[in-house]
Every structure is written in C-alpha cells, then in structure tokens.
Design a protein that fits this description.
The complex is a heterodimer. Chain A is mainly β. Helices cover 0% and strands 55% of the residues of chain A. In chain A, the strands form 2 sheets. In chain A, strands 2, 4, 5, 6, 9, 10 and 11 form a 7-stranded mixed beta sheet that branches. Chain A has a 4-stranded antiparallel beta sheet with strand order 1-3-8-7, with no helix packed on it. Chain B is 0% helix and 48% strand. In chain B, strand 5 and strand 6 form a beta hairpin. The radius of gyration of chain B is 13 Å and the shape is globular. The chains are: A mainly beta, B mainly beta. Chains A and B meet through strand 5, strand 9 and strand 10 of A and strand 4, strand 5, strand 9 and strand 10 of B.
Chain lengths: 116, 112
C-alpha cells in the first residue's frame, strides 16, 4: 500500500524558514517523480514544485522560485521542501504527492502558518 | 501559464441523479508525445484530494464506473451518473502537459 506521510509543519514568522519532509513507503521511491501541492485555507489546489526520480531536475511555480527548494533522499525514501523567506501568502496545507503526470497518491497534508 | 477554467463553481444534485463538470484550458493539452495530460480529482470534506480519472478518460484504481471522463484538445468533461452521498465534495481538474502544472478553480458538488 502506497503511503506518504508529511511532517515538519507549524507556525513560523514571516521571513523565517521551515523544512517539510515526506516519508514514502509501499513503492520503489527512486522510480518516481514527486511533487508538493498546497491549499490555502478555503481555497483551491496549487502545484508548488516537482522533482525527477533522480533528483537531477526540479520545477517550481514562479511565486516560490528562489525561496523554496525541493529535494529528495532516495536511500531514505524521503522527499523534502525547504521553504525560506516565508510570506503570509505561503500559509497553506502542503501535500506530498507522487507525480506520474497525474498526481496519483497524496499524503494527509501538513499545515504551515506564516504569521507574526 | 495554462489557465484551467472549470464550470460550474457549484453544482446542486439529487442523489441518484447525474452531474457534469466542464474544464477548459487556455491552450491545447496535447503533449508532443501525443498524450493528453488532463486529470480529475475529488476532495471530500476534511480529506486529501483523490485521483479519479487520469489522462482524460482512464479511471484510477478502485474508482467506480459511475465516473467517466471525456474530451480532447482544450475541452474536457467529467460525468458522474447515479450520484451517491460519498460523491459529494470539491472536484478539480489538473493539467500536467505543461509546467507549471495548473488546477481548475474547483466545483462543489452538493445536495439539491
């Protein structure tokens, strides 16, 4: 059974950093692209970033480019999202997803609140 | 960026009835490899989104055949027949032909 479990969320002040993790199990992690998707409170879904299976290529939405870094450790079957220079508009639930073009499996999500 | 326009925003339905949701893209979703990467999701209240349909018309594992997807190019439709209580929630389309991947704004399926 595919499982994706996010951690690392919380309350953080504007301008500070936070690192999210996503532990994957139930599939061969190193064979798949992975992605982060977020959802601001009461809003729709927004793709944030994707990474190839080797980690050699990454893709970001414009609003997080230069501030967020997606990475992975295939030996640990873990996906990361390093979020720097956080802004109030980054407040959202962040979902880890397996990216096969379709985002076929999703974690339960982790809440990030950016506020002073 | 590819803009995904989803209609309607709200869709009241009766149990046992039929629902239809439209998703239109601002440019063609046909990839250079010939595939069309348009997918549909359901997010039930308080839950993570779940994949229903991938690449226009393919039902994901465990998805009942009451759900069907169709369309091509820039115009796509999700149909739900014989609506059941567990079908209620927010529906989203997603295009992954182009980066950045973009979602439609969502359609809330609710009881009439």
């Amino acid at each position: 059974e595919v499982q994706l479990v996010e951690s690392g969320g919380g309350l953080v002040q504007p301008g500070r950093s936070l690192k999210l993790s996503c532990a994957a199990s139930g599939f061969t992690f190193s064979n798949y692209y992975m992605a982060w998707v977020r959802q601001a409170p009461t809003k729709g879904l927004e793709w944030v970033a994707s990474i190839t299976n080797s980690g050699g290529s990454t893709y970001y939405r414009d609003s997080v480019k230069g501030r967020f870094t997606i990475s992975r450790d295939n030996a640990k079957s873990t996906l990361y999202l390093q979020m720097d220079s956080l802004r109030s508009e980054d407040t959202a639930t962040y979902y880890c997803t397996r990216d096969r073009g379709s985002l076929d499996y999703w974690g339960q999500g982790v809440m990030v609140t950016v506020s002073s | 960026d590819v803009v995904m326009t989803q209609t309607p925003v709200s869709l009241p339905v009766s149990l046992g009835g039929q629902a239809s949701i439209s998703c239109r893209s601002s440019q063609s979703l046909v990839h250079s490899n010939g595939n069309t990467y348009l997918h549909w999701y359901l997010q039930k209240p308080g839950q993570s989104p779940q994949l229903l349909i991938y690449r226009v018309s393919n039902r994901f594992s465990g998805v009942p055949d009451r759900f069907s997807g169709s369309g091509s190019g820039t115009d796509f439709t999700l149909k739900i027949s014989r609506v059941e209580p567990e079908d209620l929630g927010d529906y989203y389309c997603l295009q992954s032909t182009h980066f950045p991947r973009t979602f439609g704004g969502g359609t809330k399926l609710e009881l009439k």
